[in-house]
Amino acid sequence: xxxxxxxxxxxxxSSSPAKPKPTPSPRRQQKAKAEVETGAxxxxxxxxxxxxxxxxxxxxxxxxxxxxxxxxGLKELVSExxxxxxxxxxxxLYNHREVERKAWEMHGGPDAWDVYLENLRQxxxxxxxxxxxxxxxxxLATLYALAKKFSQTWIWDKCIEELDRHGAEGYLREHYLKLxxxxxxxxxxxxxxxxxxxxxxxxxxxILSRAPDSTDHPNMEEFPDLGETFHDWSSxxxxxxxxxxxxxxxxxxxxxxxxxxxxxxxxYDTVSxxxxxxxxxxxxxxxxxxxxxxSIFFKxxxxxWGDSAQIWIAGKAEPGTLDHNIRSQCPTGAGLAxxxxxxxxxxxxxxxxxxx
Length: 356
Fold this sequence. Notes:
Oligomer: single chain
Helix content: 40-55%
Largest sheet: 3 strands, antiparallel
Strand content: 5-15%
Number of helices: 14
Distance between the termini: 83 Å
Radius of gyration: 28 Å
């Protein structure tokens, strides 16, 4: 029998209790608490878009003060050295969005970060100033309070993309987001169920697979208007879609989760991705605006938000609203027949400017 050394014997027969686990640091406790309080989703793919303009830069000092980052955290980000001015000032500049996202990652997501900051705001301080994250003079907390008023994250994301495209910053950004809340329609929830491949749904999907992707596509058509020429989906192609949607409703009804409630979103997404509406003879800026009209768009010169694809997910249009509705423009009457099969839905904006 092998000899067991005293040390090994003592180790094998030890009955001392296991060491208690170290208490999590206050920062880890705060992160866990924030995730519980907000139901924060740690999956970055579903985080809201940042309200910060995409090309905005901040200094190392601002990044550390406003986002409570240490040197180690900043090392993971790309910086750009600003050579300085005649007075001798120079700095390393970071992309503001990337710095903010780093803070989100460290705290468990944007909602958890919001809770963390709010707790810091409420915490008594002895001479130490609270550094509020901001963009061009507007507190980010103000913009993210607006973000929470958007009924779905994808709507906020699309609005931010539009504001980035037009270079809207600071108080203009805040103003335009308020306009979006008060002028864009109320969108129905995107379905959690994808429509099954029934005969009517398969037929609709085949039609959508032929959606135009250029102005010379066979399913595109020219429409003269006020001396200009628009390109849009042809009347015959739109008629096909309306007829197919009517067949889906006949087969599956309007209330079934996998029926009209679901497939209308497939039409909306197809329109949003592939719709092309150009205008000949106008400035390049206006042409750019027209090309964006497949989904949510913004025209800053007129303070207008809109969504020309929204009609495909909307409910029944009342008679007085059909004059300029695409459903009334099908020569065969297919759009009007489809309209009569739909339920009446309230899609008016949820807010007025007074509410904000």
